[in-house]
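Schema walkthrough. Field components (list of strings):
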Amino acid sequence: MAALSAFQAWMSDFAEVIGQNAEHLTDLDRAIGDGDHGSNMTRGTSKTAALAEAEEFDNSAAYLKKVGMTLVSNVGGASGPLFGTFFLRLGGALGDAEDIDAATFGKALHAGVGGVLARGKAEVGDKTMFDAWSPALEAYDAAVTDGGDLQAALQAAVDGAKQGRDATVDLVARKGRASYLGERSKGHQDPGATSTVLLLESALRTLA
Amino acid sequence: MAALSAFQAWMSDFAEVIGQNAEHLTDLDRAIGDGDHGSNMTRGTSKTAALAEAEEFDNSAAYLKKVGMTLVSNVGGASGPLFGTFFLRLGGALGDAEDIDAATFGKALHAGVGGVLARGKAEVGDKTMFDAWSPALEAYDAAVTDGGDLQAALQAAVDGAKQGRDATVDLVARKGRASYLGERSKGHQDPGATSTVLLLESALRTLA
Amino acid sequence: MKKLINDPDNVISDALQGIAAAHPDRIKVDHENRIIYRTDGPREGKVGLVSGGGSGHEPLHGGFVGVGMLDAACAGEMFTSPVPDQMMAATKAVDGGVGVLHIVKNYTGDVLNFEMAAELAEAEAGTEVRSVVTDDDVAVQDSLFTAGRRGVGVTVLLEKIVGAAAEDGATLDECFNLATRVNEQGATMGMALTSCTVPAAGKPTFELADDEMEIGIGIHGEPGRETKKLAPAKDIAAMLTEPVVSDLGLAEGDTVIAMMNGMGGTPLIELYVMYNEVAALLDAAGIKVERNLVGNYITSLEMAGCSLTLLKVDDEMLRHWDAPVNTPGLRWGV
Amino acid sequence: MKKLINDPDNVISDALQGIAAAHPDRIKVDHENRIIYRTDGPREGKVGLVSGGGSGHEPLHGGFVGVGMLDAACAGEMFTSPVPDQMMAATKAVDGGVGVLHIVKNYTGDVLNFEMAAELAEAEAGTEVRSVVTDDDVAVQDSLFTAGRRGVGVTVLLEKIVGAAAEDGATLDECFNLATRVNEQGATMGMALTSCTVPAAGKPTFELADDEMEIGIGIHGEPGRETKKLAPAKDIAAMLTEPVVSDLGLAEGDTVIAMMNGMGGTPLIELYVMYNEVAALLDAAGIKVERNLVGNYITSLEMAGCSLTLLKVDDEMLRHWDAPVNTPGLRWGV
Ligand SMILES: Nc1ncnc2c1ncn2[C@@H]1O[C@H](COP(=O)(O)OP(=O)(O)O)[C@@H](O)[C@H]1O
Ligand SMILES: Nc1ncnc2c1ncn2[C@@H]1O[C@H](COP(=O)(O)OP(=O)(O)O)[C@@H](O)[C@H]1O
Ligand SMILES: [Mg+2]
Ligand SMILES: [Mg+2]
Ligand SMILES: [Mg+2]
Ligand SMILES: [Mg+2]
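Field assembly_structure (string):
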């Protein structure tokens, strides 16, 4: 598949999905954060969605890095540098690969999630977006090992991310704003894990 | 009648009545003023009611002047100097008269209401306490001219004051805080005219 | 009612204790009479400046006591004029032998109580007292047959300007004349998004729907002249600016001090949004803002809302404005 | 939602226009990057001080730009960290050749964004950047496995004290060490009577019953650690003072700077009531308040509530505290 246009479709789909879910994300963030995750993400994705029209990109790497910088420069908050770094590393790992398959994208996904980890230093169980990223990555790898194609691997990643996201409900937050609430953070779903699922669902729809 | 003890009974009764009506007076003042007439009056009358126990007074004049100064020194707002001046002048006009009858009290009442007029410079129709004082005084005088005793004259004054108070409802205020509301002050009863009626009713109960 | 207080009856005495504890370098408090004095007065030969009024407008007046502003401020009950005993005590205490100026906001209660105090201070102590009554609120139609306009924002600017003049050695007449001029050349218009709650009353003074605002409010939680639908800052700025500009007859080339004042519950960020709109309107009209204040200076407890004050200034006023001032509520040059 | 704004999306840019219009004598605004600069910088050989954070905390940080305090402040979206582009631009602009100190409140968003900015500024312009991260909120249990405590009130005191040191010629290392010491010796505890409403969200961030308060809030409208029944000021003062005093290990004979800070919607009179109670508690414990601030310094939009910050001070800190400062939000000595 022509990677660049697929990635552009991904970003345009993701912007739409974030737009539809902005209020939900903000509501989740209002419960255990500061009620801005929806608007933060919208601010970024409305800009990334417009990139493809405004500019010509040589390859996927250049495009995805620009997506990352655009998120970093527009989202702010915790999620800006985290999603931004994800795309910066994703792009960096893809290089000038023209076609993407399960293996290529898996390598890039590892780099991207590694970026989230390096920036945020969260562990599984801290009730952050990493709780969605980590099982997603594991499930993706397992699907590839089982011989799955990109579609299967992304489907697995989505399922893994969803499980991770749902698991955040019962957790006590140990990173990010929600950690200030201590025990009171229990019983609420993490906003960043929620948008991570949206991003992977969007990838499944557009990349595979 | 022994004037001094009657006046002391008046003040004690008035304090009680103001206590009972404080919330009503404040509600009236909230509608077209600043919602403090009840607490202003209570602050003063709780002090004046205590005077008789704390101090010996030579005569009615000394007592009523002290009542006036006590109101001036404790009520604040517009009503403090107005009711205060009323009692200062009332006492001044009584001198050392030992007994009070309709004529003696009438003279003093004229002096007291004259004080309210001199301080506040309100005219009838301005929607102030003067709208109760003025018809009360006229009715009092008419009753005395008709040969009425103190009881009859005070009853007439109460009736006159009530009419004046009720008439304030339809008026547009031209003095005091309510005047800032312009047309919006219409439809509300003036707080100061209301407490004036209470004061005269209390006089009827205790002096006659 | 949600307030950081101990008892509705003790708010003012508790706050005066707090003010005394916070600013012993600049002010001292007579708790019995509820008077805030500057620590270094009275000064022989300096006109004494006394103001005061109901509490609930902080920092006005107590926060404006100090070098270059007031010598004493009398704190009344919440939104209720102080009593003559307070003004009398303050007047005698700040008398430097050359007279005392009373700065009185035009409310019947304040006027009557200050009037009695002036009569008594002159009779008892022979202190020469003059009174300036501020009446800058253009929301109120003035007429010979009413209590006249309310005294609001201009009072702050007047206390600063006349305070500097007095510090500078102006006579009582000069202070009075300058004060009169400031009052005549200044005007204010205010609005509210919410009512406030007087602690002793325990409930809001007026009710406003979620999409309504009051235009033409004073500073005592009294309802305004008009309830309107909530509007954008730009429109509200016009509703405040136009009547003030037209009342003062301001024209192209005039210079003013502008105060965008918060009513107590308005966040600073909104005051800057409002100031921006006002500044644009004045700029478009060719009116030059020489100095400005943006913040809470004369408030109505926790009311959300704002008022705009404009004062047409000349060089003398500006010089006094720029002179050093060191009070809890206003400070520069020292 | 009742606010003096034009459009929820334009609050910050409108306010920045207003700030620029109000204080051209002291600050200038880069509207594109949303950075507030002092007019007279950068100064060769002076360490540059850059701070910033989400908007909605005014006067923090933009109101603290000026002589003796910050060189630049980056304004983020409401309650949202600014982005690295802003900090990078500010860092380069205030670089006087001897390095730049970033003053960062400890929130994941702020920390990550400032971190990226510092990396980029060093890589791109070779500017030496050090960062101090304030984390003074004792409401948050600190632990190696959490995001740590929030940065709140101490940030104000730090910006003043380190601002004076930088003005005085302190090196980047000296500024960093002093800042670290201020952060270590200061602690804060806050509470709220009401939630605030982020304009873009349009509804209150949390709900509180009429007889409830939140203890242990931060400054982003986030719920606190505990919802309690409303209590008298005296009890609330104890709930704020005790954890701060015990966190700092303050003992008899210690001297502090105290800040009784309003959250934006609290009237000044209530802050003085609270200050009085706190002062009494400290006095009883033999802790001496050398200096204090009472007012709105680090706010949460229109939230009603307050926070108490204590900073254990030595002579060096006091000297820097007393040094002249001329910013829209804090001014003395000039
Ligand atoms: N250290 C971290 N590592 C990974 N994710 C984090 C970390 N801290 C916060 N997050 C994520 O960021 C989300 C909040 O993002 P957002 O609301 O946009 O920013 P902010 O918290 O600054 O307002 C959280 O729900 C969480 O998933
Ligand atoms: N000029 C005046 N002459 C006579 N009565 C007046 C005048 N101004 C106000 N009042 C009376 O004072 C009353 C209000 O008293 P109060 O609420 O105690 O004082 P304030 O208005 O200062 O809060 C009004 O209801 C009115 O009757
Ligand atoms: Mg958030
Ligand atoms: Mg009243
Ligand atoms: Mg009153
Ligand atoms: Mg945020």
